[in-house]
Amino acid sequence: MKAVSVAAALALVACSGGGTSSAPPSTTSTTTPTTTSTTLPADFYTPPDPLPEGRPGDVIRTEVVPAASGLKVWRVLYRSTGVDDKPVAVSGLVLAPATAAPAGGFPVVAYAHGTTGIADACAPSKSDEAVRLLSLVAQQGYVVAATDYEGLGTPGTHPYLVGRSEGRSVLDAARLAQRFTDAGAGTRVVVAGHSQGGHAGLFAADIAPEYAPELDIAGVAVSAPPADLRALRSNAVAVPQYQGFFALIAAGWNAADPAARPDTLLTPEFVKHIGVVERGCADTVLAEYASVPPPALKVDPDAVEPWRRLTDENSVGQRKIAPPVLILQGQKDDLVLPDVTRTLQRTMCAAGSSVELKEYAEANHLTVVSLSAFDQLRWVHDRLAGTPVQGACA
Which of 32-41, 262-271, 321-330 bottoms out in mean pLDDT, i.e. has the lowest? Predict the structure, then answer.
């Protein structure tokens, strides 16, 4: 395997956004604008109504995407289970080596992307750059199954940071890759993700025993996961550049529970700007809300339902997660704070999970991915090879 290439790919993919953004990139930005393809058929993301019969993970439709030499790439629409527990169509990408699969098939990397926004234009599968960067991983002998998540690209509002929705989308992408015979996927799966994708990856592992017990998940590697949403909220309140996350969460949780109306949580001034979440991707949302005078919240979410319940439901780490977990954390991260992640590891260990935490003194929320890429790659390779875990709580 080409360690340098894979490490660079993991770093680039984890830091890339899914669509275009009108805000310029900055050193504190949580996403990187990408170039959106202009050749997509207008109706690819509109699923048939009713959905065809099938199981979660079944293919609804596919489209061949131009691929780098030695690769096969498809844009996919597949069945999953929505936040309302009903069948839903989710979009994404599947990438695979064009060579003959080895005995047992290629290992699957189920990739969960970081925050891109909730507008349909922000779906990574619409981004030429996301295809290019994910291709670097597939070129090393992996089938990559990269979900857009429910409602991101497809009809409906994306339930942002709603764990069961994200986790189902990730697990069903892995199922899709294994059932899509042209990909040559094997049974072994590793889940990987950054930031929102770390949240999604942990939830995928958490719900897998009930939702997808047949999947052989060898490990879960996540960086800067916002697992404790109370801690995330407390930090975001204090940093103007992060105020836009409240709008994304309010709109996303409203998709999960109609009683979670943004105007019951956000101040009138913040509600006035809420339309930006459907017009722009994450950088645009964060840039607009950075200039809105605080406070963002008009009530304490822990004192008002359904916000308290939703905060509890969408924080993760209290139950034992069966596969080994690697958490990568930057000590200069000012969004997902190091102390919060250390507490997460202790909580997960107390629940019986096997969790290794690696910290990087000079890394922030974004650069932790590039600075930890070799460690992540080595860990993923070891899990797929069946090497015993070392350096983690049992």
Answer: 32-41
Q: Are 155 and 47 in contact (CB under 8 A)?
A: yes
Cβ-count burial of 123 within 10 angstroms (0-12 exposed, 13-18 middle, 19+ buried)? buried
Mean pLDDT of 251-279: 97
Cβ(167)–Cβ(103) under 8 Å? Answer: no
| CA–CA dist 368, 363 (Å, integer) | 5
- Cα 227 to chain centroid distance, Å, stands at 12
- Pure H helices in 158-195: 163-179
Beta strands of the chain (E only): which ranges? 59-65, 71-81, 87-97, 106-112, 143-147, 185-194, 216-223, 325-330, 355-360
CATH 2.40.50.140 fits 3-228+316-385, yes or no: no
Three-state SS at 6: helix
- Total-model pTM: 0.91
